[in-house]
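Thread: Newbie trying to understand structure tokens

Hi all, I'm a second-year student working on a class project, and my supervisor (Dr. K.) asked me to get a predicted structure for one chain before our next meeting. I've only ever worked with sequences, so writing a 3D structure as a token string is new to me. If someone could post the tokens and maybe explain what I'm looking at, I'd be very grateful. Here's the chain:
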Amino acid sequence: MLTSVATGSLAQSGKGTNAGRRIITLNVIAHAPEGTQVTKEDFDLYDGGAAQEIESFARLDSGSRLILLVDSSANLKVEAAALQKAMEAIINELYQDDQMMVVGYSETAEILEDMTPDLAKLQATPAKIIRKGSPSLFDALIAVADAFSNQASSGIEKRAIILISDGHDAESKTKFDEALRALQEGNIVLYTIQVPDRTRGALVRDKPKPPAAIEQLTVGTGGAIYPFEKATEAAKIISDDLRKNWYRLVYSPSGINTLNMRRLLLMSHRPNIQLRTKGSHPAKYHRPY
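---
Reply by user tm_fold:
Sure, no problem. This is what the structure looks like when written as tokens:
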């Protein structure tokens, strides 16, 4: 399976050294048959068309830092009780060493519970959702990406957002490409529980249609999309990704100009091993239609 990524020299996932040697770290979600150990010998990495030596590739067994980001706007096409049930399903899949922040957003993003491992506090948050206003999704993504940047000193590498949304953005000052860039540069994986599109495919000026926004944000960060009606099953799959399938890949680019934007490829040698990583790191958003 091929996974493509474009990356730039200023990405936070890469760091320079005194000798000018650049190290890049990628999150990789690896799915393989039960009992199969995925190693760096199972795939090849290409950066800008040049084969790269993978310095290390290992599963991360540590806890995660998660943000549950919920569209609380008035006309989201989900009943309040169903929305709360989906939130509960996600919260109840947390492990002891995980921590979560819960944020609801309409015109503004509101923290319903700050980052905590306290399951009882998190379980109380679905009842705090107040449905009102119109959604500012891209502003909310920037806000939670900033919240994660404040967590950087914790040393926790597994950072993910679980978004419940249809992808509609009505009010944001933030542009789509700015939101995507913030997630990619923060090495944040976005999962989406996708609600039916309230706009019914209507054209939107200067931004992708809601389903396209969801697809680009999730694929662009190495995440995945699940339909809202399968939220309970999705919560378990996401939990498995975080606990069992999350790997760190480290390499130093060679044979390329790291000042340029370029494509990355992960090429699996085995059809039963599927690899996901962030799908793009564009300097500028280009309308895909």
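A couple of things are worth pointing out once you decode it. The first strand starts at residue 2 and ends at 7. Residues 1-19, 281-289 have pLDDT under 50 and may be disordered. Feel free to ask follow-ups in this thread.
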